[in-house]
Design a protein that fits this description.
The protein has about 325 residues and is an alpha/beta fold. The chain folds into three domains: about 35 residues, no CATH class; about 200 residues, 2-enoyl-CoA Hydratase, Chain A, domain 1, CATH 3.90.226; about 60 residues, no CATH class. The chain has 14 helices and nine strands. Strands 3-4-5-6-7-8-9 form a seven-stranded mixed sheet, with helices on both faces. Strands 1-2 form a two-stranded antiparallel ribbon. Strand 4 and strand 5 form a beta hairpin. The termini are far apart.
């Protein structure tokens, strides 16, 4: 045996058979510093088990965990002009779009899909923060309007998961125009008598908060989500005063009447399913286990009060099946 057999060939084989090792196998919780195995975090819908911190979740993962059997059909979205202002800062806007599309696998910041929630047909829009901070541009605005129109055409509720840093500066006034456009779309859905439920996640800020994010029939927020128009740091620098603890977070806004419910991510399915049951007077699918229907973190009375706006009627404490049984 010569040195080729003893040295060269084994090295070549080890190089060719080298296993690819995943990066970021462990994820650090921003709140507690806890290290969580990536797969465990993914299986827990990107909620850190011990601290309960809600991490950002991809649009398709959100849909898969929210809709029945994880099944959904994406809605074709209209094409809009690319880089209409020929904008460039440290890099070209067109290059930023390409990078975000490669990173997320999405055409823009909003994904719209149809599916079922406890057997009830729904149209769902999801804003993905990984796509340029979920910023609102022409494509995102057109996607939301398409979702609203799809829900109206199919005569079913529209549910929107919001995560955004605000309007997209690279599109200037064209981005700001999406605020009144989406407002008109929400009004048309309301005229059709169909529910519009908004779920605000961390963060929900800027022009998005000043438009479609605050026009829902019910406003739900995930725990500790930042929800505001201008951030707390900007406000503190402007008024030169220290803001209250938790200012502009979900729980603070709920206590001050800006948000109806703060709901853990694991409980969004049964909570929204109950709301839809109240709005549409359709019973929850009996095939769904009662333990999932009646999640303990948010009582059915709270859900009913958010939908009806009246806490005096004791019958609202019952789930939609009992409250609206014929």
């Amino acid at each position: 045996m010569n040195w080729i057999d003893n040295v060269v060939r084994p090295k070549i084989r080890s190089f060719l058979n080298r296993r690819e090792v995943e990066e970021n196998l462990w994820v650090k919780c921003p709140q507690s510093g806890e290290m969580v195995f990536y797969r465990d975090l993914e299986a827990n819908q990107w909620v850190v088990p011990n601290s309960g911190y809600h991490m950002k979740i991809k649009a398709r993962d959100r849909l898969a965990s929210f809709l029945d059997d994880g099944a959904f059909q994406t809605v074709a979205l209209p094409q809009v002009p690319q880089d209409p202002l020929r904008f460039r800062d440290t890099k070209r806007y067109s290059d930023r779009l390409k990078e975000s599309r490669t990173k997320t696998g999405m055409e823009d910041a909003v994904l719209v899909a149809t599916g079922a929630l406890y057997g009830q047909g729904v149209t769902v829009g999801v804003q993905d923060f990984d796509f340029m901070g979920g910023s609102l541009g022409m494509a995102a605005g057109s996607a939301i309007i398409t979702g609203l129109e799809t829900a109206a055409r199919r005569k079913e509720p529209f549910i929107l998961f919001v995560a955004s840093g605000g309007a997209r500066m690279q599109e200037g006034i064209l981005s700001l125009m999406q605020m009144p456009r989406t407002t008109v779309g929400v009004q048309r859905l309301r005229e059709a008598g169909l529910p519009y439920i908004v779920v605000m996640t961390d963060p929900t800020t800027g022009g998005v908060t000043a438009s479609y994010a605050m026009l829902g029939d019910v406003h739900i927020a995930e725990p500790n989500a930042l929800i505001c128009f201008a951030g707390p740091r900007v406000i503190e620098q402007t008024i030169r005063e220290k803001l209250p603890k938790g200012f502009q977070r979900s729980e603070y806004l709920r206590d001050h009447g800006m948000v109806d419910l703060v709901v853990h991510r694991h409980d969004l399915r049964p909570t929204i399913g109950s709301l839809i049951g109240i709005f549409t007077r359709q019973p929850v699918n009996p095939a769904i286990p009662a333990a999932e229907r009646d999640a303990g973190r948010v009582s059915m009375r709270d859900v009913a009060i958010a939908a009806e706006g009246d806490g005096e009627d004791d019958t609202l404490a019952n789930p939609p099946v009992a409250a609206h049984a014929e």
